[in-house]
């Protein structure tokens, strides 16, 4: 390595810092000769917290500024929650490594109620995700879904302060922040299918930086990469950039990949679900084929 010090671009939230430090530790373990440091960046998604995510609307709200730091040379690599990283990749950046995935499921948090199904009629549940909102309403059309913004700790504070009956968050974030004590119920896939890339990290560097690409390849976990490749291709083919309530979960075992996906309308009135499978090495193809299945059934009209 010609460079003695590697700079990792990350957001400043506690979760983002944990994730960047996790990557830093993995790099330090594998390459003790290299110094690694963090470059902390503020993203639009962190600054604009008074408006619903859907309204701000642009993709890459949490990732663009962090990518910019890599593009203009302030950092050598960037660590993102893969869930937040648009499926349309920047032409000058490469998704150099996807490390082993953490917990994929969502969690239900509630100070008053023991399960999601035990919520009283018209209970107030907070989330800013279209996917979570639609799936909640599909199961419980009576629920009042309220928008919530801010980082994980802020949302948990609001849950307790603002008379909310429940909150949905990713288990992965809560585990990383040592907040599993806040989890009331881990939601099964049937109730709340996870987002594309949920629980996984994406590490980007400049596409024309072979030294860093090779170094980062040591962090790669192949089954995770195959799973998220299938999920991301599914979303890429279906979405074409607009936000729709969509969930997808791939699993890889013994070289086989199964991909299950769900598309809903905004109010969860209609839900379409289907699964596909194939050789894990054909992950991308499994993703596009499943997306085609949804397109053939007129899912665009649903959206
Ligand atoms: N958009 C917010 C975000 N992005 C990644 C995570 C948690 C980690 C993950 O799901 O991979 C979260 C918080 C949440 O959804 O609860």
Automatic annotation (TrEMBL):
Modified residues annotated as S-(dipyrrolylmethanemethyl)cysteine in this record: 242
Catalytic activity: 4 porphobilinogen + H2O = hydroxymethylbilane + 4 NH4(+)
Domain of life: Bacteria
Keywords: Porphyrin biosynthesis, Transferase
Cofactor: binding details: Binds 1 dipyrromethane group covalently.
Protein's GO biological process: protoporphyrinogen IX biosynthetic process
The family this protein is said to belong to: Belongs to the HMBS family.
Description of how the protein assembles with itself and partners: Monomer.
Protein's recorded name: Porphobilinogen deaminase
Organism: Kolteria novifilia
Lineage, uppermost ranks: Bacteria, Pseudomonadati, Planctomycetota, Planctomycetia, Kolteriales
Annotated gene: hemC
């Amino acid at each position: 390595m010609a460079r003695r010090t590697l700079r990792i671009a990350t957001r400043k939230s506690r979760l983002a810092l944990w994730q960047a430090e996790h990557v830093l530790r993995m790099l330090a373990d594998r390459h003790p000769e290299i110094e690694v440091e963090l470059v902390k960046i503020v993203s639009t998604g962190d600054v604009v917290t008074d408006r619903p995510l859907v309204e701000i609307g642009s993709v890459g709200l949490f990732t663009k500024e962090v990518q910019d730091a890599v593009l203009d040379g302030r950092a050598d690599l960037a660590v993102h929650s893969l869930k937040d990283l648009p499926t349309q990749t920047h032409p000058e950046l490469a998704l150099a490594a996807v490390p082993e995935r953490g917990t994929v499921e969502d969690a239900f948090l509630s100070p008053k109620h023991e399960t999601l199904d035990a919520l009283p009629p018209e209970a107030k549940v907070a989330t800013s995700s279209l996917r979570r909102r639609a799936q909640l309403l599909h199961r419980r059309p009576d629920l009042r879904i309220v928008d919530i913004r801010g980082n994980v700790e802020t949302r948990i504070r609001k849950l307790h302060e603002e008379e909310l009956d429940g909150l949905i968050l990713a288990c992965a974030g809560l585990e990383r922040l040592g907040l599993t004590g806040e989890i009331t119920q881990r939601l099964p896939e049937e109730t709340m299918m996870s987002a594309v890339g949920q629980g996984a990290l994406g590490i980007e560097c400049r596409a024309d930086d072979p030294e860093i690409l090779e170094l980062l390849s040591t962090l790669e976990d192949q089954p995770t990469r195959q799973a998220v490749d299938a999920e991301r291709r599914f979303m890429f083919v279906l979405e074409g950039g607009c936000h729709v309530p969509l969930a997808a979960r791939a699993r890889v075992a013994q070289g086989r990949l199964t991909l299950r996906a769900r598309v809903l309308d905004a109010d969860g009135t209609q839900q379409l679900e289907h699964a596909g499978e194939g050789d894990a090495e054909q992950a991308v193809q499994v993703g596009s084929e499943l997306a085609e299945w949804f397109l053939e059934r007129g899912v665009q009209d649903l959206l």
